[in-house]
Amino acid sequence: MDVLLQDGDMVIGHDGSALQVSGVRELLQRAVLRLAVRRGSLPHDPTFGSRLHQLGGAGSSLNQKALAACREALAPMSGVRVRSADCRLSPDAGRLSVRVGLEVNRQNYHLEVTV
Which CATH architecture has domain 2-114? Predict the structure, then answer.
């Protein structure tokens, strides 16, 4: 079990305690964290995170680079397979949004990460 996060903050219940998340929802939350964190930014685990923040450019090669970066970041997660990555680059805002298609326990899910 893990603490439920929403927009980077813990979700607090009516009693003031942090809400918990488990199962597939927990796996998906962990995947979002791995994708959103810059690889190498955690000194105690330099392999945690993704290289999505290093991507630039446009076109289909951007999607292929994002797919490779997502697969690398999520490789340590048992039972999670990256199926697709679809990028939208916003050059004026300097933001890259990636919609990631995952398979978890033979079910398909989609996550969106902005870096």
Answer: Roll (3.10)
User: What are 107's strand-pairing partners?
Assistant: 104
pLDDT in tens, 47-73: 999 999 988 766 668 999 999 999 999
**Residues 6 or more apart whose Cβ sits within 8 Å of residue 95:** 89, 114, 115
Instruction: Evaluate if residue 113 carries a pLDDT over 80.
Output: yes
